[in-house]
Structure formats: structure tokens, C-alpha cells
User: What shape does this take?
Amino acid sequence: MASVCNDPNGRRRIAFVAPDGAKVAIRLGVIPRKVADSVCLHVEHLLASIRSGQPVPGETSVWVKNLTPWLHGKLSKAGLIVAKMEAPLFEALAEKYFSRKDIKDTTKSTRRYYRNMIAEFLGTKRVDQVNLADADGLRDHLADRGLAGPTIGRTLRFARQVFKMAIREKWILSNPMDALAHNFREGNGKPRQYISPEVVDAWMECAPAPWRVLVALARYGGLRAPSEALLLRWSDVDLAKKEMTVSSPKTETQGKPWRRVPIRPRLAEILEEAWLTQVTQLGPRKPGFSREKVKSACKSRDYKSPFPGSGSSLGFLFSF
Assistant: This one.
């Protein structure tokens, strides 16, 4: 049997004799007597289970699963339960997040970039050692790197998702990133600019055929670039009916893996031209596609910017 002992200044401890005959005391600190009695009852159930070889009662089993790391450590040290495994590093827990089947490969690639920045800051700290001060420090660390506000917001939101996993795994009780919720806003500080068809056509006059098709699909077809545009095949395009079937990875998990899109007259002209000139792909399909690579390709060909004073021949890509 276990009993609750009262120590000076309102402190409590639970005393009992272990199965090996040793006298053991679990010091609980300053807590109400009723709480100490509840803990004592669960300790008795654990002792009875060890001595009899019978399963732990369901109520006590649930209680053990929800123990704080502090009390869990005391019970495991007393030999009543199995010691909890050491909490993992953020990087290791993020890898478990990436093992989810509902996350696209392109999303994983982007979020691994976020993971690397977070892991760089946290270093060898385990997830149960990260506190509110670390969360503030991470935000400042990202800002010091010169990252844009939306990128900082997405990185912090990814960190919050991973720490939610740590809560489900019982490594921590609260999410240190919740205090940064106001930093997750992704709004673009600059007002969006409408890109007229004349501006787009001016750029496409000097662009290679695959890029013309890619830009036309985004500007005149409303396709997401590059994810939806690069998945499009000629078998998906019906020029006679002026419509196409677009695969949509972004909405696939929402029960909308594809949609029918009408082909507007200007887009039809560009697609017919691409068909006649035997363009076999509707955009570059090399791994690692990015807007920066598009801009680099334009600079290498010395394309003239169609945007007065913009200094970038691909400024309209930021309006997709």
C-alpha cells in the first residue's frame, strides 16, 4: 500500500514499499491534498499490477499516458513505469512529418527548406527544451537572414505544425509557436499589379516556345504555374471543342483532382501555334523549376523587359 505524507510548508510525498522490499518516496512538492490522494491511488494500482502480473486498470493507464514529463520521470525512477524515451530533435520530428502520405513531393521540397532554417537555429535542442524565448529568437533569426515577411510566416507556421505533432506524441504539453500566431500572416505588402495582355504578348514575342505556352496557360487559362501547367499533356487539350482537362495536385486531397477549363481565343492561338511547330511539352519539365531559373534564362538571352522601369523581364510571373 502507498500513503500520502505531509511535509513542512504544504509539501506532499507518497511513500510505499517497492516489490523488492526497498522503501521509496515520491516527492510531489506543494500540491493540494486531494490531488496527492489521486496520485497515490494510481501509484497503488501500478504497484498491484507489478506484484500480481495483471494489466494496469484502464483509468490508470490513461492517466500514465497523459503525465507531465516531470511526474513521469519520478514514477519511472521509482520503477513503477517504463522510462520515457528522450524527446527527438526538431529535424528528426520533421522527417516524421514528411512521411505523411497526404503531402505532395513539391510541398515536401519547399518545407525541407523551412526545416533546415529552423534546425540551424535550434541546433541540438530537443523539442521538449524549446520555449517561448526560442520561438521569439527563431522569428528574429529568420528576419536577420533578410527573408521576406511571407516566407517568415510560412516557416513559422511549418514549425507550429511540427510542434503540434510533438504534443500528440506527448513530448510537450503546449506549443511554443502559438505565441507567434500574429506573425503567420502571408499578405504581400505591395499592392498587386494588373498585367495587361499587351504586356504579356510583348514578352512572349521574344520568349522560346515552351515558355510562351507556360505563360499563356497561366495568364489566359488561369492555370497554377508551374504545378498544373507542367502536368498538362496534349492528350488533355481538345482544340476542336476549345476546352482542356487540367490535373490539380493542390486540390486533389479535397476531392477535386481535375477540372475542365475553357480555352479562350488568345490561348487557342498560342496552343495551335505550338502544335504546328511540334512543341512536345507545354513548359520546361526539368526538376527544380523556379521563377529564379526563368529569370536567369531570360538574362542569358538578353531579353528586353516589356515593363517600363521594372528592371525584370518576368515581373508578371509574380501576378500568377
Summary: DSSP finds eleven helices and six strands in the chain.
